[in-house]
Every structure is written in C-alpha cells, then in structure tokens.
Amino acid sequence: MKFLDREEEMRRLLNLSAREGGGLVVLWGRRRVGKTRLMLEWVRLAGGLYTLADQSAGSVQRRYFAESLSSVLDGFAESEYPDWRTLLRALARQAGHAGWRGPLVIDELPYLVAASPELPSVLQGFIDHEARSARLCVALAGSSQHMMQGFQLDRTSPLFGRASEAFELHPLRAGYIGKALGMDRPTRSISAWAAWGGIPRYWELAEPFRMDTDAAIDTLVLDPNGTLHAEPDRLLVEELPPATGLRPILDVVGGGAHRLSEIAGRIGVPATSLTRPLGRLQELGLLTREQPFGAPDRGGKRSLYQIGDPFIRMWFRVVAPQRAALAVGGRAARAAIWQRHRVRLVSEAWEDLCRASVPRLTRTTLGEDGPWGPARRFWRGDGPEWDIVASSPGDDALLIGEVKWSEKPVSESEVDRIGRALLAKGLPDGPWARDKRIVNAVFVPELQAPPGRAAGRRSYRVITATDVLECMR
C-alpha cells in the first residue's frame, strides 16, 4: 500500500537526522499502526540503518545487531561483543571514524531490554557521551506502549529527558481510507472505517477486496482461518508485560457494560480494583473514558468506558461472543451474524467521526461560525441526549449537533425532520449553556440533492460525510 499521511512525523524525523549534533528520538504506538513503515521511509530518505530486535538471548541479539551494522560499518560483525556497553562504544568509535551519523533505528527495543535489563542504563551513558561525540542520530522504537512510554516519561527511567524528539504514532486519519481502498463514495469510506479504523496493516489486508468491505470482513475476521480472527488476543499477548489479564474488561465493555459499577459487577471484582487495569487499557489505546460535555475530566460518576478503536469494537461485538457459531457455520451463517451488527457498528463509528471532526471543520463548512473546541456528547439521567456539544474558543458560542446514519442519500424532508427534532430538544441542562450564541448542526452522510434554496431558510447547518472526511486528513 502507498505510504500515506505522516507528513508532520516525517518532518520531525528528517529535521532531527539533519541536525549537526545528532540526537535521540523515542517512538511508540500500538502494533500494526505503521511505526516500522515510518522508520523504513525515514531511513530510506536519510541514508540510515533500520534494525529489528527479536526475543532471543542477549548474546544472540548482540550478534544479530552487529551483523546489521556491518552493512554500514565494514567488519563490525567480525568482533565478539561480550556486553552491550562494549558493542555500543565500538559502534560510536567506528561510526565516528567512518563519518556515518545514522539515523540508526533500533525497533522493538523492549525485546532487547527483556533479555538485558541493564540496557536502559547502558543506553543512557551511550546517548550522553559516545553517541553525542560521534554526532549520531539514534531512534528507539517499540510496540510495548507501557514500556516505551516509561522510557521517556517515567522520571525514574535512565532515559528520562534524553530524547530530542518523542512521540506516539497514532492511527491514520479517516480522510485517507477512501484513497487507500479505492472507495467511490464517502459512505463506503465510513463503512470501511467502521471495520478497520486507522490501522494501516488492516488497510493493507483489505486493499485487495477494494469496495467490498463485507467480503473483506468475512475472509479476514469472521472466518476462523482469517488473518485477523484472533487479532485482539495477539495484541494483548505481544505487549510487554503481557496484557492478557485485561481481556475480561474488553469482553464486558464490548458486551454493553460501560459504567464502572457495571464492569466490576459482570467481572465479579470490586470497582476499586479496576483503576489500574482500566488505565492501562486506555494507555494501550483500546479503551476510552467518556465524560459528558461540561463535566470535569477527572472523577465523576457519569463516566462511561467505551472501546474506542473501530476494529477492536467490531471484534468484541461480533467475533468474541460468536466464536463457536463462526467456527461451525459456513459463509452464509457468518454473513447473517455480521449483518445483525453491521448497521449499528457503522452508525457508532460515524458518530465518533463527526465528533472528532468538529475542531477541524472550517468556516467554509460552517458558514461564519467556528472554530470550535473538542466535541462531546451530553447526557444526564433519563433526560434527552445530545450527540455533539462543543464550545467556541472564546466560550461565547455553543455548537449543538444531531448525528444520523443512512447508507442511502438523505432527502430534504428527512433532513428537515432531523433538524426540527434537534431544535425541539432545546438546550442541554448545564450552566455552560446559558447566555450563549447557539449554532445547530445536522450531520448526515449524504444529501439526496444539493441543498439549493432551502438551505437559506434553515436555522441549522448541514454537515455531510464529504465535509467530515475532507477535514480528517
């Protein structure tokens, strides 16, 4: 698949490798998110070296590492290196003599640390002294987010504060999926996003199926022999340390338990014991904690926990509870299971995308209104719910939105019905809604015909999938 997006990340990496004095970059992100592809593209452009660690013994890992280095430093693999300190000092010395400044990428660093726990301290000395003297540019990357973030963010870590650049690589944005998979309509792009999210590896696997997302899901996910049939289990096992003990939380959240008390009750543990597991799942990007608009980010009994990643959400909604049925059923049976869940999953993904797009919507899309801050839902008890609430940066205006999903273009009369229903709900019950200029908006995937003259009579804006996807690039 063609290398997409990542312009900002690549700019930062190229600036670092062009810096005269070298430096350190620490990069992390969930598996399959595209870290390796980004590193390979960077190395190709900057003339560096990419190395990949494995889970072997420390002595074997050093030998493999030395053999990789021999491609840029002649004869480097001819010596034996009894420890990492000796190897890294030799690397800096020979790189300095050869005038080679990297970048040197060490991918899956946690595998090396698991076999050689002293390595972070050794790397600290190397980065502070030998690498600096040789003006080397070094990149440390890994998929164990817990460990990689700790290297950079934990004050007790030997590598704390050493990085010139440090960032998490996030999933690709939704605006690129149509181009990647050859979608001919925005609604098809939304449906594909609901299945694969922004994970490039899933896009690569789905690419041969082009616009037939249902066939791709059946072959890759629902079929017990599919490449992604057991994907979430692999993601949890491959974390360091393994996160398999967190699986029950994902099962119950995927099954409809979203409040802390509900999650604890279904698992059969005290709610107080879930603080760390829930935090780690959020750290891994597998779970999100949702607060209603206007509520404080910390605390709050109204918090809801959701599976934020579209693919993981789909897997725990469709595959996890149906493993036996999927194993014994044929293609028709699998298709029937998928169709029971498909529309709701796409609708939820569309609603998430609409909220995510709000801060990116331009004044062209919203007329003279905007810009807007982050959008959230609003709910309180058994009262009405608003799909989108966002405040202007000056806090003098409020955007109130209603989101509807339809695979077919929405007629003018249906848009008008949705808009009138939104206006009839009035304002959310919160002090932050008082004395504000209100902008109402209806989010629908596709209009049956251009708004025409009717748009001038509306007291609300209409946002389509084209608008959403264009700003999500």
Describe the structure.
- The protein is 45% helix and 12% strand.
- It is an alpha/beta fold and 473 residues long.
- It has three domains: 7-168, 3-Layer(aba) Sandwich (Rossmann fold), CATH 3.40.50; 176-353, Winged helix-like DNA-binding domain superfamily/Winged helix DNA-binding domain (Arc Repressor Mutant, subunit A); 360-471, 3-Layer(aba) Sandwich (Trna Endonuclease, Chain: A, domain 1), CATH 3.40.1350.
- A hairpin with a 7-residue loop joins strand 8 and strand 9.
- Helix 13 (247-254) packs across helix 16 and helix 16 (310-319) runs antiparallel to helix 18.
The CATH topology name of the largest domain reads: Arc Repressor Mutant, subunit A
Which spans have pLDDT < 50 for at least 5 consecutive residues? none
Please report the total strand number as a whole number.
Answer: 12
The level of helicity is 40-55%
| The CATH C-level class name of the largest domain | Mainly Alpha
Please give the structural blueprint.
Elements: H1 7-18, E1 23-28, H2 35-46, E2 49-52, H3 58-69, H4 84-98, E3 104-107, H5 109-115, H6 119-133, E4 137-142, H7 145-153, E5 165-168, H8 177-181, H9 186-196, H10 200-206, H11 213-222, H12 231-237, H13 247-254, H14 260-267, H15 275-283, E6 288-290, E7 304-306, H16 310-319, H17 323-328, H18 331-357, E8 376-378, E9 386-391, E10 397-403, H19 412-424, E11 437-443, H20 454-457, E12 461-463, H21 465-471
Parallel strand pairs: 1-4, 1-5, 2-3, 3-4, 10-11, 11-12
Antiparallel strand pairs: 6-7, 8-9, 9-10
Helix pairs in contact: 1-2, 4-6, 9-18, 13-16, 16-18
